[in-house]
Amino acid sequence: MDLQNKTILLTGASSGIGYELAVALAYEKCRLAILSRNLEAINKLADILKDSGSIIKTYKCDVTKKDEVAEAVEEVRKDLGELDIAILNSAVSTRSSVAEFNSAKAEEILKTNVLGVVYFIEEILPVFMRRKSGVIVGVSSMADSRGFAKSGFYCASKSALTTLLESLRVELQHYNVKVITVKPGFVKTPMTDKNEFYMPFLMQPAKAAQIILSGIKKEKKEIRFPAVMSLLTRLTRHLPIFIYDRLSSVQLKKRQ
Asked: Is the domain defined by 7-255 classed in CATH 3.40.50.2000?
């Protein structure tokens, strides 16, 4: 897929993978809309990329607020034209052990990681279906594979997102609308910097962005990286429950 002159919307662009994706996309000579709650950060980013060859516009948007999402999409359409690609990357994560179990944390994570994606898809899907073209890219995680200790809400959100995207992909193929699911392993971002445990195969966000960009161009249905982590999570998913519970118990003791 050639991205030149495509209108691309990217959420969560103020830091981490989203920031580096914005940088990578800017050199594709596209029309790029970058969204974040942190308008100052993305304005600085747009200024850095002003000579990249792309038309870049910034929009303040809290993805957990349906009205802000609708307004942002409408503004993008007015400024840059109808969307060709939506990269829905916004995500949050907080520790959610049983000792700190509460619905407020669940609501924060699920509203951002799941409903924040749903709100955007709701706005763009009718046009994509009517036009019989368009690409939806949802950034999930390999954390969707099982329920990892002290990360229950995050794992649940990513599992829900992965399943939603798969359902959409199957149905939308009849409308020539492509759905791509991105499943990173550990990537060094402000979100993972809070983790108190060892993160194997930790990847720099610029490298992750290049892998995602390459996968989008190739129209892959699923983009998983790094390869070793992908293999390990696939194996973990199929472990018998008693083995998984035993291994998880050992890991928990190491982290205490």
From this structure: no
Q: Which residues contact 34 (CB under 8 A, 6 or more apart)?
A: 10, 13, 18, 22, 42, 45, 46, 56, 57, 58, 59
* C-alpha closest to that of 225 among 248, 245, 201, 249: 201
Break the chain into its structural domains and give their ranges.
Answer: 7-255
Task: Give the residue-averaged pLDDT of 50-76.
Answer: 98
Whether 198 sits among the annotated catalytic residues: the reply is no
Q: What is the DSSP string of 132-143?
A: T--EEEEE--GG
Q: What is the share, in percent, of the chain residues with pLDDT greater than 70?
A: 95
User: What's the confidence (pLDDT) of residue 195?
Assistant: 66
Could you say which of 154, 175, 198, 244 is catalytic?
A: 154
Instruction: Please provide the distance, in angstroms rounded to a whole number, between the alpha carbons at the two ends of the chain.
Output: 48
pLDDT number for residue 115: 98
The tokens of 91 are what? 């995500």
Q: What is the pLDDT of residue 255?
A: 63
